[in-house]
Specification:
Two copies of one chain form a homodimer. With 587 residues, chain A is of the alpha/beta class. Chain A is built from 18 helices and 32 strands. In chain A, strand 29 and strand 30 (569-572) form a beta hairpin.
Amino acid sequence: MDISVMRTAGGTEPADLAIINGRVVNVYTGEMSEGGIATRGDKIAAVGDVAYTIGDDTEIIDAGGKYLVPGFIDGHIHPESSNLAMRPFAQILLQHGTTVVMTDLHEVGVVGGLEAIEAVLDEVADTDLKIYFVVPSHVPFSPDLETSGGLFDPEIIRKALARPDAIGLSECVCTYILSEYHELLESMRDTLDRRLTLHGHLPGMSGPELNKCLAAGLSTDHESFSGEDALERLRAGCHVQLREGSIASNLKDCLMPLIDRGLDLSRVSVITDDLDTIDAVERGHLDADVRLLLSLGLGFVDAIRMVTLNPARAFNLDQEIGGLAPGRRADINIVSGPEDFRVEKVIAAGRLVAENGIFLKPYPVVAHKEILTDTMKLRDPVTADSLRITVDNSAKFARVHVIQTLDWIPVSEERTAVLRVEDGVIQPDLEQDVLYVAQVERYGKNGNIGKAFMGGFHMKRGAIASSVGHDNHNIIVLGTNHPDMVVAVNRVVELGGGQVAVDGGIVLDELAYPILGLLSDLPAEELAERKRRLNGTIAKLGSTIPLTFMFLSFMSLAAGGGYAITDHGLIDSANQKIVDPVISLEY
Amino acid sequence: MDISVMRTAGGTEPADLAIINGRVVNVYTGEMSEGGIATRGDKIAAVGDVAYTIGDDTEIIDAGGKYLVPGFIDGHIHPESSNLAMRPFAQILLQHGTTVVMTDLHEVGVVGGLEAIEAVLDEVADTDLKIYFVVPSHVPFSPDLETSGGLFDPEIIRKALARPDAIGLSECVCTYILSEYHELLESMRDTLDRRLTLHGHLPGMSGPELNKCLAAGLSTDHESFSGEDALERLRAGCHVQLREGSIASNLKDCLMPLIDRGLDLSRVSVITDDLDTIDAVERGHLDADVRLLLSLGLGFVDAIRMVTLNPARAFNLDQEIGGLAPGRRADINIVSGPEDFRVEKVIAAGRLVAENGIFLKPYPVVAHKEILTDTMKLRDPVTADSLRITVDNSAKFARVHVIQTLDWIPVSEERTAVLRVEDGVIQPDLEQDVLYVAQVERYGKNGNIGKAFMGGFHMKRGAIASSVGHDNHNIIVLGTNHPDMVVAVNRVVELGGGQVAVDGGIVLDELAYPILGLLSDLPAEELAERKRRLNGTIAKLGSTIPLTFMFLSFMSLAAGGGYAITDHGLIDSANQKIVDPVISLEY
């Protein structure tokens, strides 16, 4: 509540800004009508005929008959997937009309815990992007199977939930709900006790399993892959977040059956989950999704609602955001019509921040707190010896487990292969597409190195390493030989975090992520260019996966299905246990 | 969150109750489909095919192909207007399919403060009606113009907001918002800080005044009297509660323009505000409103939503109530179809409580706490002298202010009249329809008696008195002569509160409200019969207002427009001041 906004609304004090001559899209009634919007500070004071709010010093924007729609809201996004620091992240989203995101900053939490998340939230606080914090439900996800820097247990979660910007609990994972994992249930109860919302991560759930998860009180789920998934969740009272992101894009498949049946869509929204910077620069964000929605035949107001009012409602925030009405955050996009949908002007928190895709006053780079930059704490430099998988000296062959990535989604399966053994060291086999993979603990906690075999990337030469690896963000390294892997890992450490491609002992290309080993201060356009270059370099090493590092980063996901590599070793995720990569030896 | 419900949902433990062979009305998608509902404890575990939840001890209800809809929710009701104690109140509502109400228990608070409200909430806690508590925003409304028993200031409101059943702040009155009354704004801020909701009382607000009120953060308003009112509020992002109650019934007028324009109705619900027991018994509650909605041409699911999902959403409670889905409160009505809509069975919190309008196991009368029963604390019995308005002995006539009630809504206007003076005492004038009215303070705080003149009721004989009078609930007495008024007031005191009709010094009829001076333990049907009898008695005294006591109870409303009578005297409500009822004398 802001008295000055009330006074402008009441007509006794002038507006700071008045947008006139627009067509107001009313997401509440579904109407569109000529009018304007008056703002005071960061809030909307009046909508419609706002002449009464205009004073001598009121800034005027003439919308020229264009449509006025609420700023867009992404109800589930991990900013870290962009590898952008929060300020360039805010900037690229605002350029595309997104003014609010809900995020758990889970990856920041994995590396640096709540303290690091709070430092990151401070960095974004004086930008024009509004972040609502959805508290991570569990870090590390698999405490017995991986080492993380940060920790979220029920006590820390309670502390985080008490923040004024905390609005819920994120990624309540189905497997833990089904197993009634006591720590998760405790945090879920704490969240409901505060009248905040629970957000599910329910891939593959259906029938009684889905019912059990939803009976626990989840408000949303973002893991629909098909129309059947979406339909079952919607019918069961779950707000469905349809994903159109860089890793998974299921919007069309999920939505068409709902449209075809003429269902109420007020409990459906569009989210990205993960948005790569290349996609953000080349395709856009929710503005591109509105174009997609319109192309699917959705009405203009319905399409706008899916990225405004609907996500606001899913978080019980529709008094604050998601519509054009007195008291709401002054997030307003001036857009062209449904035929050729483009965001032309972006007003965030009452300030004109972008015009025709140009960000008007780029944010200066901020000085980061030490907890965000001092995160590469290897006990010792890595050596070839430390990466080798050795067996009985006299063995000739080894049958091994191979982690195998699918080529369209970063999900792993398991296969087996028979590899040659030389002097007790198991050899890779490029013919069979079996490479070395390892994960090196980087928080200075135990010096663990997990080692296994990897398929699906088809690299023929060199090695690549990265300090981005879900859900622990240790250093993951993939290679055809140990010397290149050593160079790659040690260069990542020298960079303070980042991604590196090595061949013949030479660093071919690299990208520094000195913030948490995850993020760069480069502007989005420049980072996208550097990412494209790095991807090109990796392609020359033979990788057939276009987003090699993105896929590789999910190969350490111990909470997924299939197999994974963590600093603890090869993980059988489905059974949540560590397994020896070597099945048997032949002599 | 309830582990046992999760286990039933997950199929590992049996349901307590399974309703089979129904047609499930899905308020989320808008679909209707064959299926059932399984419950465990007080919650829904599964919907649709629930065969997997049925065990040996699961109770089965065969819906016989009838429709299954969520229990009804009244988002704004003052139970005290029924004059029923909470248990018979719960019973009559449940009989009609209402399983949840949002209420501020404002009148209880006026008499006994938060302590009395908490005692009342305790009384209802072990019934099957769910009450969400919307904290009164201000008691007394006009501290300088009336005496109340209870007090709600920002500190007490903070304490009340901390209750787990508190979901918002009630009756945020427009005049106080417009004047930026600091205590109200402080409590509104406290409410928003807890992420709870603000509920407006905005009669007559439009344009900048409405904008100012809504900019303060109000979620709802229940004071639309016309389609224009409803339309303007809806467009401005306000959830509109349309009223169909015993005092004001504006549902049709307000709704038709919204239907005709084809607007989104998800932010519209139906409430009663005040429901007299006679209406509840004769007409019903929200079940009757669903019939009205259907008669207006609304679709079946849309009509059901207006008394289920929509009010749940207005309070951010749609994860708890308002739909048939896993985890929701097991409030289920088995109803006939849209053609001949009747509630046939009512399941509340998982228990079958009513069948074909019969309440299966009536609640026994509860022993009330002393704070609820010891509320008639007059310092001295009233005498004729204490009720007289005296002037200069030699005056012949007096020009006076007359409080004049409208005959269709209990709202007062002011008129003047010239009355005879006899021996210094101003006389009533039945020809001009000017009666005596007075209000006697009953909390033992100051012994105040306010005196004035009243028109509009047309009584010709006797006197009536009542301990029900908004917003202070002192004893209000209306009469043609002082001796009958004295008998009436003192009899109300003897009853420990109630309503009395007197003629010629004889009590003709009476109704005891020994709980707070407001409520009776009689069952609804019996209280309705007694009320009808009392109304008949009053009609014989000449009153032309059918609900005389209901109208009289609003004549002490110092926060309304027009004039009012309180224990402080005649109140000019619009100017919030006490005025002398005597304008001038003639000699």
